[in-house]
Amino acid sequence: MSTGIRVTPIGSIRTPYKTLDECPKGPDENNGKAKIELLPNYADGLLKLEAEEVDLLYWFDKAPRDQLRGVSPHDGIERGVFAMRSPHRPNPIALSRVKLLSISGNILTVSGMDCLDGTALLDIKPAPRKR
Amino acid sequence: MSTGIRVTPIGSIRTPYKTLDECPKGPDENNGKAKIELLPNYADGLLKLEAEEVDLLYWFDKAPRDQLRGVSPHDGIERGVFAMRSPHRPNPIALSRVKLLSISGNILTVSGMDCLDGTALLDIKPAPRKR
């Protein structure tokens, strides 16, 4: 097993939220739209992206990584970090499935995101078709 | 934006597949079961994990990272890497939603996975409840 793995931001997520207190708890299509700015050198990777939904992976760089338990803001119950989707986890890689509304060059418009403006984007994957 | 981010394996995924040729194309509950061996020091993070399904993030360490297009094995069509869930992508973080069958200490049993035996695990997240 490798002792460390390096990942590279491929773009950034633009939202209206400038502080953590402003961020909603979880992505929600009722929270307007967000822009995904892919770095121009990755734009060719969007060829034939026609999915209705995409899974976005992004990086919560302000999250503590040394917590193994937390209290959910939804119900006040203490759980392990792997029983929550909170950003407080050993590898604070966030995952949200959002609606893909449009693509223009290297910019994607998607349904509402919950992260800080400027959050580092790690990956875009088409969501599997619904069964 | 950060120029590099370091992630750490938190465990490994045990499958019957010892070579890439043996790996099925995509996770499938018809492909038996897989074991997730969380490193013991992370086991406390499983507290109250009761989800029926979990999203597993793992690392395709053998995948090329410099490709922006590829040909799907399903239909032979060339697409951008962000239009496919193939492991060939700038950050080869794989994502699979699988059924969580049981937990015993630091070992999870889940439905069939598609990765090599010993693949590095990066995260476990409970799947959102179905709407």
Automatic annotation (TrEMBL), chains A, B:
Annotated GO biological process: methylation
Residue ranges of domain TsaA-like in the record: 7-131
GO terms of molecular function: methyltransferase activity
Pfam families given in the database record: TrmO_N
SUPFAM superfamilies assigned: YaeB-like
Superkingdom: Bacteria
Membrane spanning stretches: none
Keywords: Methyltransferase, S-adenosyl-L-methionine, Transferase
NCBIfam families given in the database record: tRNA_TsaA
Family, per entry: Belongs to the tRNA methyltransferase O family.
The name this protein goes by in its record: tRNA (N6-threonylcarbamoyladenosine(37)-N6)-methyltransferase TrmO
UniProt gene name: tsaA
